[in-house]
Write a structure and sequence with these properties.
Length: 107
């Protein structure tokens, strides 16, 4: 899983952004596969931050520290296939639990 996210953050991968829809869907389906897959993504990786970083592109706070300008994904002619990434981020965020939530009745 670490290799998958590492490759997804690679600039060479972003150059082929139009082909990433299936890849994003794969990550979503893995997360939705069960509670343990979701917990694995949340506990072992910074998926939510990395997903935000991918979607923000050059506007990401992480991009400021990079020497090379990021590849722009999408444009006026075609849209970026971020639907599955937004769904993945939504799924992960809704699956998060904090210590404060543990003290709330009904959760």
């Amino acid at each position: 899983m670490q290799m998958i996210m590492h490759k997804l953050l690679d600039s060479e991968c972003h150059k082929n952004w139009s082909r990433l829809a299936h890849y994003f869907t794969l990550l979503l389906e893995i997360a939705q596969g069960g509670r343990y897959q979701t917990l694995y993504m949340l506990q072992n990786y910074n998926f939510v931050v990395d997903i935000c970083d991918i979607m923000l592109g050059d506007k990401s706070p992480k991009a400021v520290a990079e020497k090379e300008k990021r590849v722009s994904m999408g444009g006026s002619v075609s849209t970026t296939p971020f639907g599955a990434l937004v769904a993945l981020m939504s799924h992960l965020v809704r699956s998060m639990h904090t210590k404060q939530m543990m003290n709330v009745p009904g959760l």
